């Protein structure tokens, strides 16, 4: 369950073989925005589940360039010039949202907010001041300002020109624009494999195939690429979200500067006002007990069980140099991913960059976000990535973590969840992606993979990739 309600629409699945110029795989923010920029071309979109059902459905949807201490981190690993360039790209993405929302008259609760970064530990004060200085030097209007929240803070600063929205209301309108432009969008259609012969890609969608001259991988985790590509450049981070009803809407968005990140924003729909609280972020290879992680969020934001309306977790890819991976990765194969949990701005940027590259081969951010880049950060972080990858695989095999679970869950080669009526739900306890054993997420009642974050419901249906197969017995 997420705070962003799905929109009803007629779903079309692929029912014939097809040939197109450009195939976009993944129908969420990155995929649909790329289709939006390419809408006068011969394109199709395929989506394994439904529109916006990926990471986007559980996002906090802040459209901001104030991204905890990201500029200090980029400057350290890639230099100040690249940090400035990244800041410029994020500001441009925000402007582009304003432009699209105004031009297309999109009703998506797009709201201007003040954004804060706060030091929740004394040791973070100096680091926060450094981030603030960087922004000042880039001519951003930033000021020291007290955090307007009860959450513990030793120092905080704010900017005024950031936004929030409802991502599914936004996607609904983009979807309708594409539909009116007669762009085919095939839902419940999974691409299982991609093969290139001469200058054509053939995508295997099960019963049918799609041939395309160009492919855009907008699947969040582009698992079609050589398996070692992403694990050597990134890790997967999981965060936990609790949503509670509140009396008053606050025009603020706040994020802690330290790791694990704690972050909050407010949202108002026709009937109620909510506070969305996120925290306890961690590399999925570690700290996997969901109950403990949700408890940490509740404690930080002083939320009681009775106040919680929604509770869910979400994962995103963190890259070694904190810059996204956007561009051409193989001949005429483009990717947009690795958004470091800042996918609202970066998915729009990816869509713009990829569509520019397809149309003209030129983009101002081609080099900085080049997905093939290798730099010092890859080398420094490689041992950590290898360690966490190996650890998650081995520990998933050895530790069954029975102590975490209530009596209604049994984990061995078969995972069993016994529901409130005593019915047993059995699944294969093995992720089809790379064979890791799964962890039962008691809060959301899903089987979660600790290696690459695939998720399955209690009956074994795959509800999130990179796995594209079920684990039904
Ligand atoms: C806890 C959390 C909070 C966040 N909050 C923010 C925030 O406040 N601001 C911000 O800027 N960013 C935020 N992000 C990041 C942002 O939500 C994501 O980066 C963004 O939603 C990714 O969008 P996407 O379209 O690239 O991927 P997704 O939304 O994951 O979409 C990928 C789509 O591809 C489909 N797919 C996958 N495989 C296949 C296949 N084989 N065939 C067909 N289709 C396939 C999936 O079904 C899915 O619909 C947050 C992330 C997390 C984890």
Structure description:
With 473 residues, the chain is α+β, with helices and mostly antiparallel strands. Helices cover 26% and strands 30% of the residues. Among the domains are: 107-163 and 235-319, D-Amino Acid Oxidase, Chain A, domain 2 (2-Layer Sandwich); 399-464, Rieske Iron-sulfur Protein (3-layer Sandwich), CATH 2.102.10.10. The protein has eight helices and 24 strands. Strands 3, 4, 5, 6, 11, 12, 13, 14 and 15 form a nine-stranded mixed beta sheet that branches. Strands 1, 2, 7, 8, 9, 10, 16 and 17 form an eight-stranded mixed beta sheet that branches. A four-stranded antiparallel beta sheet has the order 21-22-23-24, with no helix packed on it. Helix 2 packs across helix 3 (80-103). The mean pLDDT is 93. Flavin-adenine dinucleotide is lined by residues 25-31, 46-49, 53-56, 59-62, 190-191, 218-220, 239, 278, 314-316, 339, 341-345, 347, 465, 468.
The amount of beta strand, in percent, is 25-35%
Give me the CATH fold name of the domain at 107-163 and 235-319.
D-Amino Acid Oxidase, Chain A, domain 2
- Put simply, the count of helices is 8
Evaluate the radius of gyration: 22 Å
Shape verdict: globular
CATH homologous superfamily identity of the domain at 107-163 and 235-319: D-Amino Acid Oxidase, subunit A, domain 2
Give the total of beta strands. 24
**Mean pLDDT across all amino acids:** 93
Structural class: alpha+beta
What level of helicity do the residues show? 25-40%
Assembly classification: single chain
The span between the termini is 25 Å
The stretches of 5 or more residues where confidence is low (pLDDT under 50) are none
Largest sheet: 9 strands, mixed
CATH architecture of the domain at 107-163 and 235-319: 2-Layer Sandwich
CATH class of the domain at 107-163 and 235-319: Alpha Beta
Say which molecules are bound, naming each kind only once: flavin-adenine dinucleotide
């Amino acid at each position: 369950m997420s705070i962003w309600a799905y929109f009803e629409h007629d779903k079309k699945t692929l029912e014939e073989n097809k040939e197109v110029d450009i195939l976009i795989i993944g129908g969420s923010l990155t995929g649909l925005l790329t289709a939006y920029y390419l809408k006068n071309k011969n394109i199709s979109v395929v989506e394994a589940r439904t529109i916006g059902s990926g990471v986007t459905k559980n996002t906090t949807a802040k459209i901001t360039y104030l991204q905890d201490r990201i500029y200090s981190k980029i400057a350290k690993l890639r230099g100040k010039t690249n940090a400035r360039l990244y800041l410029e790209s994020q500001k441009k993405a925000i402007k582009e949202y304003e432009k699209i929302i105004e031009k297309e008259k999109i009703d998506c609760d797009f709201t201007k907010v003040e954004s804060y970064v706060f030091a929740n530990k004394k040791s973070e004060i100096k680091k926060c001041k450094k981030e603030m200085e960087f922004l000042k030097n880039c001519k951003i209007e930033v000021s020291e300002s007290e955090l307007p929240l009860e959450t513990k803070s030793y120092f905080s600063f704010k900017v005024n020109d950031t936004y929030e929205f409802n991502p599914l209301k936004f996607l609904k309108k983009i979807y309708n624009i594409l539909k009116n432009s007669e762009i085919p969008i095939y839902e419940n259609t999974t691409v299982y494999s991609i093969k290139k012969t001469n200058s054509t890609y053939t995508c295997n969608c099960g019963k049918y195939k799609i041939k395309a001259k160009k492919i855009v991988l907008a699947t969040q985790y582009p698992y079609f690429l050589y398996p070692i590509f992403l694990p050597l450049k990134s890790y997967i981070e999981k965060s936990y979200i609790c949503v509670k009803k509140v009396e008053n809407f606050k025009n603020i968005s706040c994020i802690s500067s330290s790791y694990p990140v704690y972050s909050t924003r407010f949202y108002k729909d026709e009937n109620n006002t909510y506070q969305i609280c996120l925290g306890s972020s961690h590399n999925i290879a570690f700290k996997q007990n969901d109950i403990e992680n949700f408890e940490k969020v509740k404690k930080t934001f002083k939320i009681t069980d009775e106040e919680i309306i929604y509770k869910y977790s979400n994962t995103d890819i963190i890259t070694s140099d904190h810059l996204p991976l956007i561009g051409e990765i193989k001949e005429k194969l483009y990717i947009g991913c690795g958004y470091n949990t800042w996918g609202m701005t970066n998915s729009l940027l990816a869509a713009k960059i990829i569509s520019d590259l397809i149309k003209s081969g030129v983009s101002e951010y081609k080099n900085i976000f080049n997905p093939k880049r290798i730099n010092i950060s890859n080398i420094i972080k490689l041992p950590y990535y290898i360690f966490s990858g190996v650890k998650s695989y081995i520990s998933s095999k050895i530790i069954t973590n029975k102590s975490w679970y209530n009596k209604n869950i049994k984990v061995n080669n078969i995972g069993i969840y016994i529901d409130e009526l005593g019915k047993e739900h059995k699944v294969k306890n093995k992720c089809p992606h790379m064979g890791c054993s799964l962890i039962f997420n008691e809060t959301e009642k899903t089987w979660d993979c600790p290696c690459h974050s695939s998720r399955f419901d209690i009956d074994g249906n795959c509800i999130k990739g990179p796995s594209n197969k079920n684990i039904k017995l």
